[in-house]
Amino acid sequence: MSLLSDLTTIVAAGFEAAGLDASFGAVQVSDRPDLGQFQCNGALAAARSAGRDPRSIARQVAAQIESDHRLASVSIAGPGFINLTVTDRTLAGCMDAMAGDERLGVSPVEEPLNVIVDYAGPNVAKAMHVGHLRATIIGDTLKRLFRFAGHEVLGDVHFGDWGLQMGMLIVATRRRRPDLAHFDRSYGGPYEEPLDVTLADLQAWYPEMAREVARDEDVAAEARRATTDLQSGRPGYVALWEHFVRVSRASQERDFSDLGVEFDLWYGESTVRDLLRPLVDDALARGVAVRSDGAVVIEVSRPGDKAEITPLVLETSHGAFLYGTTDVATIQMRVADLRADLILYVVDSRQSYHLEQVFRAACRAGLSGRTVMEHIGFGTMNARDGTPFKTREGGVLRLGDLIEMVTDAAATRLEESDLAAGYSRAERAVIARQVGIAALKFGDLVNNRTSNYVFDLRRFTALEGKTGPYLQMAAVRMDSILTRASRRGLAPGAVLPPHHETDTGLVLRLLQLPEVIDRAMELRAPNHLAEFAYEVAADFSRFYEACHILTEPDPGQQASWLEMVRTARRTLELLLDLLGIEVPARM
RNA sequence: GCCCGCGUAGCUCAGGGGAUAGAGCAACCGCCUCCUAAGCGGUAGGUCGCAGGUUCGAAUCCUGCCGCGGGCGCCA
User: Fold this and answer.
1) Is residue A525 part of a domain?
2) Lookup: nucleotide whose C1' is closest to A456 CA
């Protein structure tokens, strides 16, 4: 379907005709545009297995394929590189096919899978902070990407609402508000909403409590007791917990909404709470889990391990379940009820050890079936000095504050520019939000997922160079041209063979879309989408500078260029949509 | 101690065995009577941490060392 796959088919046939494996025919975009548009390195690899000179293989393959009408030139260079350039007519034909295709030439996957993307992972009693940014937007992009590719995808927020912290919050609340009916065992309900316990309270109490628990065994025991009481369904505690969940979720949904992120499932650890007891008992009964120092653990080490992997604790010696337990139970639920084929865990890389334990435990307990579980780890966002990002006061920067910062910076930039001068206040506010979010998201997603990166507010809000706003600007320009053209009664038409350096460059770029989508999916790597979106915008900008579309005298040429602009716009729209970036109506 | 990740231009980062290692920013030089200059073109800038190895070919794979970050049962 794609140009690259067509070329691979051509060259692969050449290798087969030469008595060599077709797999040597893989064609890629050229590293040396001066020598050709595409290249195949297969002759070098084939030389080894065939025991022949790579150049002679390349010559043989070249002779075999050079008569193909789609190829303008086939040449051999260096030790045996086969360089290809396609005819301008072929480029035009491919471009027309892309322009006429709803999916821009990207075929849907042949075997759709049930995919669950587990991402964001906010916790009760904690407003989201900068650390949640990556988990949220990487996960959101992967969700959109897999969905676009044709998979059945569910995004699950995996709310952290069922661990020891709940007991700690209950104890903290009891200290401040012992009068609440929630703590009276003899009270039968109903429970009033403790409205004066706010998220801000919970956030303040929690770290204090955590310090105490670490220091004082009595307090720790109290928190554990409250946790087990909650987990075994004590009504007052459950009511209090429901309140915690409500106030936390309200704050988090605001942040998600600002980021344009939505979830299909707002499941949490508590969703599987009724599975925990049976899961542990069953594992014990079947001998999969064992008692160790009073706890129930499941062995997860395997013969080939480089280092010992310690058993996963399913139930503590105090009778509480841990987040590992709920993680295993969540796998059980996703496999049995949601029929997941693939589960992507978009979680900080630092949790890799834990997730490995959990995956193995689920497997050993026979709960995961054929479902593939994958940890999509990511690095941390650091400050300019390389340490984790903090506010000037040394505290954790709230995600909501970060969003506000980039929005303000975009608004300032907008005011400095003459361009937005005539826009209404309301429109400028909308644009500032869209531009700020784009700067934030693109600045993050363009980085390799696995590496740590530095968040530099100044750089992120500069809005110049390789940034989200640059992409928005390019999209707005495309819209502007298309709108003006349509007002003048000009319509996109058949794509003519490109002959300019810049329109050829744009066409060659756009035709790479299917491979980029494939690669981004395969690697679960949003940065490939981000990078490609930038290249599309940059190639368009060059084309835009060199070819003045609206004043082009030749109607055929003009219609062709308009079709290229329209297709570039659709391509950019798709990519930006996958990245979760909105395009303002104008800037 | 063991395990995992990282080390590429002044800065921030891309680069899934291939040719001459790229981009953005910062620096310097140009381009707005013309579809939005948040733009475009150009110049300069590199022992790809170090040392070995595998290979026709290594930033990329392997080993060791150095440096930085992270993780290592009853927290999440």
Assistant:
1) yes
2) B12
CATH number of A39's domain = 3.30.1360.70
Computed over every residue of chain A, the mean pLDDT equals 93
Owning domain of residue A31: 3-86
**Closest nucleotide C1' to the C-alpha of A462:** B38
Let me know: does A507 contact A96? Beta carbons within 8 Å.
no
Cβ burial A89-111 (10 Å sphere, 16+ → b, else e): ebbbbbbbbbbeeebbbbeeeee
Tokens 């004043």 belong to A551
Give the residue from A227, A259, A291 where a domain finishes: A259
Within 10 angstroms of residue A68's Cβ, the number of other Cβ atoms is: 18
Q: For residue range A476-486, what is the model confidence (pLDDT) as tens digits?
A: 999 999 999 99
Number of domains in chain A: 3
Work out the angle at residue A434's Cα, subtended by the Cα atoms of residues A429 and A437, and round it to the nearest 5 degrees. Answer: 120
A370 CA vs B23 C1’ separation (Å): 41
Confirm whether A44 is domain-assigned: yes
Helical ranges in A365-424 per DSSP H: 399-416
In eight-state DSSP terms, residue A587 is -
Query: Within 10 A of A269 (CB to CB), how many other CB atoms are there?
Result: 25
Strand B-proximal residues of A, range 94-153, CB below 7 A, are 123
CA A414, CA A473: separation in Å to the nearest integer? Answer: 12
- Residue A549 sits in a domain of what CATH number? 1.10.730.10
Q: pTM for the whole thing?
A: 0.96
Q: What is the pLDDT of residues A521-578, one digit of tens each?
A: 999 999 999 999 999 999 999 999 999 999 999 999 999 999 999 999 999 999 999 9
Q: How far apart are CA A541 and CA A520, in angstroms?
A: 24
